[in-house]
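Hello K.,

You asked for the raw outputs rather than the summary table, so here they are, unedited. I folded two proteins back to back in the same session to keep the settings identical. This is the first:
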Amino acid sequence: MEIAMPRKSILLMLVLFLSACGPKPTATQPTPGPDQVNTEEQAVYAALLKQTYSAGTIVIMETTSTDPGSADPSTSRLDYVLQNLHDFDKSVAADFKARNDKAYPLLPDMKLGVTYVLLTQEQRNGMFGQNQSGWEVFYQNYPDAPGITTLSRVGFNTTFDQALVYLGTESNWLAGAGYYILLRKVSGNWEIDQKVMTWIS
């Protein structure tokens, strides 16, 4: 003897079955807030400076830049850098470009794990503007500094385990170099992975 099921029950069972077989919702990565970005950016700067310089007071230009005389990265320069990097997340490059659309002031209370001084453009001009002994004046003021360091803002990938940053150092009239540096987070610590030189003097 057959038992007839009401049509509504059949439809309900069919809907439940199809729902169970459908695609599962994917977990979305929470968007990091400004505080987290600032914290990670300072962690990248700290790791970069520690792994680049051995000691001394680090003199850093107070505004960001991506090359001498340039606030934002040109497409051709960034393309060159990306062509010479390997095994990196493309989102890190897009974020780097977006975050370096102009010069930005660095925070005066950054926690970098090293002794540092932020140098204004006016202070730099005062030492180098009309004084041909500018580097002598600089080293009189900062005798243990490795030169003048310029940093860009840091670009991150969406999972915050890769970072791209520019670091330039000038230590005398014809002594300096600039690098785009890719860092990776390993066991919670940022480590330099690759460098691409973009200028040298």
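The second followed immediately with the same parameters:
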Amino acid sequence: MKLILLGTTGYHPNDRRQTACLLLPELGVAFDAGSSLYRASDYLATSRLDIFLTHAHLDHTFGLTFLHDLRAQAPALQQVVVHGEPDKLEAVEQRLFSELLFPTPPPFDLQPLAPHIELSDGGVLTHFPLRHPGGSVGYRIDWPHRSLAYVTDTVAASDAPYVEKIAGVDLLVHECYFADGMEEQAELTGHSCLTPVVQVAARAGAGRLVLVHINPLLRSDAELPLGDARKIFPATDMGVDRMEIEF
């Protein structure tokens, strides 16, 4: 199974990173629809695309306004279904695609999240609540021989309730917006610092951790010291745009 990180920053794009979107191209499944969603046309291998939103903040939904171009660049794409919590879908439909903001919405269907969703290849997708202003959810997919979890826009803590939901996952993709020392700002904005994130991965017994939703104001990736993080959880990597992960 291949996962492609189409966009790996949060809040706003910069010259190196677009905002959040993860793609399973062979399955036609994406998580979030940030400014990087337009890149999906380079990889998508299905006639249907299911987009699972963690929440409705613009850095995770703005890419839905690119669906006209995505469909033009991927002519085999026949259907787009956007999944999310009902209030988040309502915000997308009534606010993001308000006639005064975007008068010609592209064709897509809205589908409220079900507790368990069986994917086309037999994988089972579940979701769980996360602590974030306005509310957010994380996702997990379990297949017979592999598993994936995506956690973003939350305050990481090894004793957080969501940790049990990602226990034993093979690949954990987790936000890491701040370096250590920014705990007060992380708590205020509902985001995570580096050390708590790797502690979560260790506590959950994850196989591998990939960091995403990186602060766009960081001047370089070196400002998140992976050397220190790997002392706690050795299998830690920094996500970059268009990174392809086999798991």
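Residues 86-96 form the longest helix (11 residues).

Happy to rerun anything if the numbers look odd on your end.

Regards,
P.
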